[in-house]
């Protein structure tokens, strides 16, 4: 166990604690890990039930992809389960606690913070906030998540052998870039929800400034005057710019951003661990009646319906 702790602290994070909670006789730690520039790929298992505690991440984004079994995660106030159908995503802020059964073996992908942020910045042709407001999970059954996980597993297999194609430096660099760019296109983030008119170099700087602060801290009680001050223009100019380039007024966009954030969090949360009101307040909604009406109008169901996992 001490060797496992020392290995994980060296390879992953120094403020890391591993405590066995299952039968110590079945403990069988194994980790096939490869360091490839700014990314660390590994297949890890412990053989017995453990609990992992990690201090606040600061340097990296991290993705866990269960290959077998199930994993329970606590991060930033949310409890999320992952299994071979759903991956976990961690942004570099907040402590992490994992309940890791002995039956769970997983792919672990660590990506340096600046590398993923630069990739997403380039892909969107706009400046993104740091840390990125990423979704806590993504689907591994269909769509890009399935392809990305298969790419990671293939790359790890290739790098673990002495004569694989990926062992060639030029190919290894290209595969590394595919892992980073693939994750940027796979993981949930609010920038992908922006109307097409906002993407690219023709977006006005005034609009961009207001959008940046809204995406960075959507829960803040901004007024249109606050956003106009950030943008460096008058209220009327900001409103007209948003109507022309976003298709809606600034505060309408902010409400939509908050509603989407609430919907994403409720969709992936355990109804026994938190309430709708708790999530609504966290995203800046102070009047629950108006919030519930706006939520139903946007998604067609009540917030509690989403929390129960039926939509």
Automatic annotation (TrEMBL):
Q: Which keywords are on file for this protein? A: DNA-binding, Transcription, Transcription regulation
The residue ranges of the HTH araC/xylS-type domain are 208-309
Source species, domain of life: Bacteria
Q: Does the keyword Transcription regulation apply?
A: yes
The UniProt transmembrane annotation reads: none
Among InterPro entries, the record links this protein to: AraC-bd_2, AraC_XylS_family_regulators, Homeodomain-like_sf, HTH_AraC, HTH_AraC-typ_CS
- GO MF annotations, alphabetized: DNA-binding transcription factor activity; sequence-specific DNA binding
The protein, known as: AraC family transcriptional regulator
State the organism of origin. Answer: Actinoplanes aureus
